Amino acid sequence: MKYSQNNIFIAFNLLLVLFLLTSCNGGGSKDGQSVAPPVQISAPVPTATATSLPASPPNLSYASSAGTIGTIGSSMSVSPSTLNANGASITSCAIKFGTTALPATLSVSANTCLISGIPTSVLLPTLFTLVATNSAGTSADATVTLQVNPIPVYAAGYSISDANIWTPGYWMNGIWTTLPPLDTTKFSSVNAIAVSGTHLYAAGYSTSSSSVQVPGYWRDGIWTTLDAIDTTKDSSVSSMVIDHTYIYIAGSSKNSSNVSVPGYWKDGIWTALTPIAP
């Protein structure tokens, strides 16, 4: 059989195309055996490593700390408003050397910089300087002003005004505080006083515009009227006790016969007591 040059050329081109197609598919067969696709080698991707920052001296501040004013005999606690260790544990917290020392009954926590204790004497407003230390160094100066007041002493009653009117009120450590009466032109008086927590109670009477002595009490300066047997007759308060959430006030209230009936109010509710001679 004879082949023309054209036939030979066409056959050669067909073989070349088949070879190229097999190579592009990444595999194929050669002499009846499978040919593995070419192996792709990827360059390793670099990984990021964490780098810790070096430690620095602590940050300490008492700029907005609460509890800086205490009372003799009562626990006092002043926490720093800012305390940052900055990468290293705090090893010391104390009054700065060479500055004013704390009273003997107050101390500073070496780790938390908490100032605490039970003061036993009066302390006028005094500036103290503290510093905190870690392995990187010492903080900037942190100042705090502390004050300790005396135990409050109260005395209650009335004070006669320029208009010769009894004005109700009380003294705390000798300082007078006026309480608002029902009628500023009538007599009023405080006959009992008590403190419970942060609240001050003053009990007594306040004369109304009808010239009737009305029983009641002031709580933090706000008046509360107590029930009377006859609201057209005088009533009076003689003593008061605060027991947890209960308010007990003893006194008397006149009935319609104008006879004073002894009794007490518990949270504003009147209970009459039987007198020896009714």
Order of H and E elements: HEEEEEEEEEEEEEEEEEEEEEEE
Strands, count: 23
Rounded average pLDDT: 88
Rg computed from alpha carbons, rounded to a whole number of angstroms = 45 Å
Structural class: mainly beta
Instruction: Give the overall form.
Output: elongated
Helix content: under 10%
Please report which band the strand proportion falls in: under 5%, 5-15%, 15-25%, 25-35%, 35-45% or over 45%.
over 45%
Note poorly predicted spans.
none
Determine the number of helices (DSSP H or I, runs of at least 4 residues). 1
Terminal CA distance reads: 156 Å
The largest β sheet comes out as: 5 strands, mixed
Task: Name some characteristics of this structure.
single chain; five-stranded mixed sheet; 278 residues; 1 helix
Descriptive notes:
By secondary structure, the protein is mostly beta strands. The N and C termini lie far apart (156 Å). Strands 4, 7, 10, 11 and 12 form a 5-stranded mixed sheet that branches. The protein has a 4-stranded antiparallel sheet with strand order 16-17-18-19, with no helix packed on it. The chain has 1 helix and 23 strands. A hairpin with a 5-residue loop joins β17 (199-207) and β18 (213-219). It has one helix at residues 5-24, and strands at residues 28-30, 33-35, 59-61, 69-71, 76-78, 82-84, 90-95, 106-108, 115-117, 123-134, 137-138, 142-149, 154-160, 166-172, 175-178, 188-196, 199-207, 213-219, 222-225, 235-243, 246-254, 260-266, 269-272.
